Amino acid sequence: MNPANAINATLYRNLSFNFLNDMAPIAGFIRVPNVMTVTKNFPAKTVAEFIEYGKKNPDKINMASSGAGTSVHLSGELFKSMAGVSMKHIPYKGAGPAITDLIGGQVDVLFDNMPSIIGHIRGGSVRALGVTSAARSPAMPDVPAVAETVPGYEASAWFGVAAPKGTPPAIIARLNREFNAALADPTMRAKLADLGGVPIPGTPEQFWATHRMETEKWAKIVQASGAKAE
Question: Which CATH code for domain 3-31+157-225?
Answer without folding.
Answer: 3.40.190.150
